[in-house]
Amino acid sequence: MILFLILTLLLVWSLSSKKSKPVAFVILAIAWLLFAFNYDNPDYSNYVIRFDAVSSWYGIAEQGVTDAGFSLIMHWFYVLGIDDYFQFKLIISAISLLCYFYFAKRSLVYPAFWAFLYLAFYTTLDITQLRNFIAFSFILALFPLLEKDTFKADIAFLIGVLFVSTIHFSMLFFLVMGLKLIKKKELKIALAIIVLLALYVVGGRLTGALQSSMYYDKVDAYARTSSLGAMVTTSLFVVNYLIVHFIYEKSKMGLQAANKTISTELTLANNLALYLLLLIPFVFINSLPIRILRLSTLIELGYLLNYASAINGRKRNYMLALCFLIALFYFVWMSGGALDGLRYNYLLEYFI
To answer: Confidence band (pLDDT; 50, 70, 90) for 225?
Structure first.
């Protein structure tokens, strides 16, 4: 009850101070408290074991090449004297949330409201999926480069994505945002296929999935549309694209000339939603596509909120409400099992 009251007050505050960067910073600082003082969740023990293992170069080698960047980050912290996972998590979550704030400060018109949506509806699962959260925070920090819409900035973004993918290989997906640099349609298709294959082969997921009879069962269930879960999961990608594309098309009526920046941002959101459709065939192999979709909606929501700032009256309120409902939906759909991230928190355990 107390937690719900606090969230309600923060919602009112974020709506009344939508453009405030200091308010966004405070809200993200509250999110940091949830990360920093969490002491248990479904993945916590695995991270503790990995942190202890990478104290030496031999331990890093044992972790393998995939996601080696994450092992190296842990090792560097260990070298600097941070020899406890709890302390590491406290510092790395602060750095990651500063990346979130950087994106909000540089790219968003309504940073405070966007920060609230993240705190209320995305934080709980990110506390559990820490490596995913860290990697995506750097992707967020790179997105302002794409907004510049220049060749050099786009190349810098792609190089950055390659580095970030060493933390979590699923971030390779964001290489598709570089497709706009390629003029020929055939080359775009080829690059998209290469990125998707790399996304799964690097992690060894595709080979294992193809050897598993479960793969064929899932594909068969999809083909016969007899699995409600498969239908709903697939529809998430389609509905996400339809919503973003509808708003993108709607914005063309007068917005492009009036606000080139927001037009560029909506183009990025539309392209991202379109490229996410490429992940649909892989939904039935593992959960990575739905994770990428969930995180990508944070970028889309930020740009949709920017569009809301450019329209007036009731339409703006509708857009704010739509963004709220989208974030709420992903919380209900994906984060229900991640509430341990809040339950096992030194600050909150008496309020949940």
So the answer is: very low
